UniProtKB/TrEMBL annotation:
Gene3D superfamilies hit by this protein: 3.30.60.20, Phosphorylase Kinase, domain 1 (3.30.200.20), Transferase(Phosphotransferase) domain 1 (1.10.510.10)
Statement: the UniProt record of this protein carries the keyword Zinc: yes
Organism field: Caenorhabditis japonica
Biased composition regions of type Low complexity, renumbered to the chain: 305-318
Example GO biological process: defense response to Gram-positive bacterium
Domain Phorbol-ester/DAG-type: 202-256
Record GO terms (molecular function): ATP binding; mitogen-activated protein kinase kinase binding; protein kinase activity; zinc ion binding
Residues annotated as domain Protein kinase: 469-740
Name of the protein in question: Non-specific protein-tyrosine kinase
Family designation: Belongs to the protein kinase superfamily. TKL Ser/Thr protein kinase family.
Region described as Disordered: spans on this chain: 300-328
Protein's UniProt keywords contain ATP-binding: yes
Length: 763
């Protein structure tokens, strides 16, 4: 057994060394030249065989990342570029192949890759995937001129390196290839299992003899201008509309396939037809949209300059064979979730690693039996403590339990060190999903400065010094803990956090401090007042001012079903904006803005709570194989980019988090605004799994027929913009709210028939 492990390790080490050696043999520039000679071709083959071998030796996540990084370094990406792609979940080749060229370009733009590096990245990815597909399809499938022959380097034999069998079906001239496993180190699926059919449609290259003007268009392969004139320097595929230089043609592979964009478009259409009431954004109505525009416009996706405006096929280049494959062992983040899946052909369990299943956590609100249980428990604790203590734990007044003042415990908490700078660094990094906050994001004097310890001590409250209301100690239970009613120099809400998501108990205190750091320096009228935190043995939590209104905006809208008038809606929305805008200026992201986390203090005041706590680590606990346990309707609040980042293979030790940003908070505000306008939840009746799927396709919830002004709808549309950069800031929203008409405009009915403009058409 031990020997087998060592053998496998040796094989891996040998394979990595081999890959590195191959990469040393040439430079990416030579390798990307369009007119490459026989020697270059051989080198290319060697590299790709080495890469391909790497993927068949049962690599774990870390190793896959390493190989990915080696490859990207070879392509010319800096460590920062690689990190950016990793944050965008491009952590291995499967994830790289899972995105379209257009999306990769968009990611490169977001990561500010320079033009040359971006070109290399795009070009090398196309080549890599062509080789990959060729190797996956086995020797019998290869075509001598277009696709490189088999390995020219000695194959590395591994337990998983059996040749792949790729049955072919021929359907009306279109090659339908039974997809083989593209999993790293996984056994290929038997063709009898529910593998997907992947279309592999050969390009139909066409040279026009007409004079062609293509000033701005670039070659889809090498990203260089196509040029113009009578010279047939480039060709166009009639099926997928790819335009490439003639000399690049040989390297783009021979499958234009059904592109992901085609498939998304179809799916989009199907959903629309089934739903009936799709948001009638002219951009998203299939009938009115040119196929050139992909059904789902990836956030920030630049419109391809080479798009033909009147053509009937997408301009997005095809990345063949990306749909199929056994993904059970893959990192299949971000893009792979967005691959088109025929929902009725395979059960979720097969695709679990692509599209997480959201399971609603129980216990949104305590049941009466829970309250009773908690009361009995609190009473018992109090009795025990009263019996054993030296008098400090007496029951002082009717209905109030006074905890035991454990002096050792207090000293321990007093002696708690300030958070480790590395942990704070990590938090700063993950605070916005990887885009580094400035280092002065946190008040240095309180976190790292010489007064850090004193500052933490100032906000430490001994859990034992809090008195709990014995009759009704529990206010509510949430996904990550419970809220108790207490007394600490006045009525307080005590939020006790569950820290089980950190399996290493010795790290819980550190992690918890990082989480509550966000609260320490907040002082705003619309932000729940943080009074202190406590950490003792297995108790982690914070003490906050008790919201007097006794209800959240969620309860008000969806349980009590109170109808909000325009003035109240505006007032509440303004206050939310002010509160979150304040957090953003303090470089704190809310990450979990929901009506449940907006507490109604009085008719004229709301306070925001639960900010900065949500993280992938929390979400991923308790671990589920194919998804997450979330709060009810959580999926309705997450922005499309967050939905696309959800992956099922999250590991507690990864530093990555969901890419929360100020814009994702704005999206969540959009949902809150929707709820206030309509009194209902967007996607209320849909299964959360379907909601994230819809979001990843860029579908927005249908706006029911509500009476509200055009400006209000526009505000909603802008917050829900698929492209995060097009969403307003909270300051913008605030000023829009101020300029909203004070009264609902009265629509007088005309005395003659008019063409009524549908409310949806305003979007
Ligand atoms: N400061 C507070 N004052 C009064 N009640 C509060 C306070 N903070 C939270 N609550 C109430 O405590 C209950 C539990 O809150 P918690 O934040 O744990 O979960 P939640 O937001 O309701 O649910 P989840 O976050 O799991 O969807 C809620 O009913 C909430 O309104």
């Amino acid at each position: 057994m031990h020997e087998t492990t060592t053998d496998t390790d040796n094989v891996k080490t040998e394979a990595v060394r081999h890959l590195k050696e191959c990469l040393k043999l040439t430079s990416i520039n030579r390798f990307l030249t369009a007119t490459y000679d026989e020697e270059a071709k051989n080198l290319e083959r060697q590299i790709f065989n080495a890469v391909h071998q790497m993927t068949r030796i049962g690599l774990n996540d870390r190793e896959r990342r390493e190989i990915n990084a080696i490859w990207f370094t070879f392509v010319g990406l800096s460590a920062q570029n690689i990190r950016h792609l990793e944050i965008c979940s491009i952590t291995d080749f499967n994830s790289l192949f899972g995105i379209t060229n257009q999306e990769l370009r968009s990611l490169a733009d977001r990561g500010r890759l320079d033009v040359e590096t971006k070109r290399k990245l795009l070009q090398s990815t196309v080549i890599l995937q062509n080789h990959w597909n060729a190797l996956q399809q086995g020797p019998q499938k290869r075509e001598p001129t277009e696709i490189p022959p088999g390995p020219s380097t000695p194959a590395i034999l591994t337990p998983n390196s059996q040749p792949l069998t790729v049955p072919q079906l021929s359907v009306t001239g279109v090659k339908m290839i039974q997809s083989s496993s593209m999993g790293f180190g996984t056994t290929p699926k038997s063709p009898k299992t529910s593998s997907r059919l992947v279309h592999a449609i050969p390009h139909k290259w066409h040279r026009s003899t007409k004079f062609r003007f293509n000033g701005d268009a670039v070659c889809h392969f090498c990203q260089r201008p196509l040029g113009f004139g009578f010279l047939n320097a480039w060709e166009k595929c009639r099926s997928c509309k790819w335009k490439v230089h003639t000399q690049c043609k040989g390297r783009v592979g021979d499958s234009c396939g059904l592109t992901p964009d085609h498939l998304r478009f179809l799916f989009d259409k199907l959903i629309q037809e089934n739903n009936g009431g799709m948001w009638k954004d002219p951009q998203s109505v299939p009938g009115s949209r040119s196929m050139n525009e992909p059904a789902f416009q990836f956030p920030d996706a630049a419109i391809d300059s080479s798009s033909s405006t009147n053509s009937s096929a997408p301009s997005t280049p095809a990345l063949p064979n990306i749909i199929g494959g056994n993904t059970s062992s893959l990192t299949a983040p971000y893009r792979s979730e967005r691959r088109f899946l025929f929902p009725d052909t395979e059960s979720y369990s097969v695709h679990g690693s692509r599209l997480p299943i959201l399971v609603i956590s129980e216990g949104d609100h305590p049941t009466s039996s829970e309250i009773q249980e908690e009361s009995v428990y609190q009473a018992r604790v109090a009795e025990d403590e009263a019996a054993t203590s030296s008098g400090a734990g007496n029951i002082e007044s009717e209905g109030t339990i006074v905890g035991n003042q454990d002096s050792v415990g207090s000293q321990e908490v007093e002696a708690e060190a300030a958070p480790n700078p590395d942990v704070v660094d990590k938090f700063n990094k993950r605070a916005d999903g990887g885009f580094t906050w400035e280092r002065h994001a946190w008040n240095m004097s309180t976190i790292r400065g010489p007064n850090a310890q004193a500052s933490w001590n100032e906000v430490t409250i001994q859990f034992e010094s809090i008195e709990f209301n014995r009759q009704a100690p529990i206010i509510g239970r949430g996904r990550f803990g419970k809220v108790l009613r207490g007394f600490h120099y006045g009525d307080v809400a005590v939020k006790v956090y569950d820290m089980n998501h950190i399996s290493d108990e010795s790290k819980r205190a550190e992690e918890f401090k990082v989480e509550v750091s966000a609260y320490k320096n907040t002082r705003h009228d619309n932000i729940a007042l943080f009074l202190g935190y406590f950490m003792s043995e297995d108790k982690y939590g914070m003490v906050m001012s008790l919201s007097r209104g006794n209800q959240s905006l969620y309860t008000m809208l969806h349980v009590v079903r109170e109808k909000l008038d325009l003035a109240t809606t505006r007032k509440i929305a303004q206050q939310i904006c002010q509160g979150v805008s304040y957090l953003h200026t303090k470089k704190i992201l809310h990450k979990d803005l929901r009506t449940k986390n907006i507490l109604i203090e009085s008719k004229s005041k709301v306070v925001i709570t639960d900010f900065g706590i949500l993280s992938m680590k929390r979400l991923a606990h308790p671990r589920r194989t194919y998804g997450y346990m979330t709060s009810k309707f959580w999926a309705s609040y997450i922005s499309p980019e967050l939905a696309m980042s959800l992956r099922t293979d999250f590991d507690e030790y990864e530093s990555d988090d969901l890419p929360f940003t100020e814009q994702s908070d704005v999206y969540a505000f959009g949902t809150v605004w929707f709820e206030m306008l309509t009194g209902s939840m967007p996607f209320a009746k849909d299964h959360p799994h379907r909601v994230i799927h819809a979001k990843s396709l860029g579908i927005r919830a249908c706006l029911p027929n509500v009476k509200c002004t055009q400006e209000m709808k526009e505000l909603l549309a802008s917050c829900w913009n698929t492209n995060p950069r097009d969403r307003p800031t909270f300051t913008d929203i605030s000023s829009k709210l101020t300029s909203l008409p004070k009264k609902q405009r009265v629509n007088r009915s005309p005395s003659f028939p008019v063409m009524m403009k549908s409310y949806e058409s305003t979007f």
